[in-house]
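Person: Please work through this fold.
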Amino acid sequence: MSNMFRVDGLKDNPLPWLLEDDPENPGPRWFALTELLESPYSDPEVVAARQAVATAGPVPAILNAQDSEGYWVEPGPGYYPKYRGTAWSIIFLAQLGEAYAVAGKVGEAREVLRQLEELSRQRYVSPYHLAYVYTGLGEQDTAIDWLERAYQERAGAVYGVKGSFLFTTLRSHPRFTALLKRMNLT
């Protein structure tokens, strides 16, 4: 563990709990494997955890709740009601696309990109969120192109680019480092 997972002040190490299989919410296991233990994306446990995120828990439930017109709940302002408004759905869809890509489901990831591009003709889709999927596909230069566009547009979520676990694989890329420097995040 090169990140040195800190447990100071805790009664016990929470890592075993975070690594438990939870079919209702598989995300924490994937996060613990990749961010706390820094297991590579190719590790079979990481691949299985990422596939679980894409097939069980809140992500597929959110996608299944989508109206055939492409919105959740009812058409209207993007962020409300929280986690059910259209903007949240776009965020979750982009994260699902990255999950598919990392799990080796390239066709499904490309389908998510197609859906996001289609949505972008009807409403705003942040370039930041398109970068998720390209990062998962391993298309680093394209992902960084979208992140640079997000920075130029001052897309709301771009402020979190430095700490986002979704961009872990980009951290050593010179263009990503340069982008962080331009954003005064280094």
About this structure: Confidence is low (pLDDT under 50) at residues 1-5. Residues 59-182 form one domain.
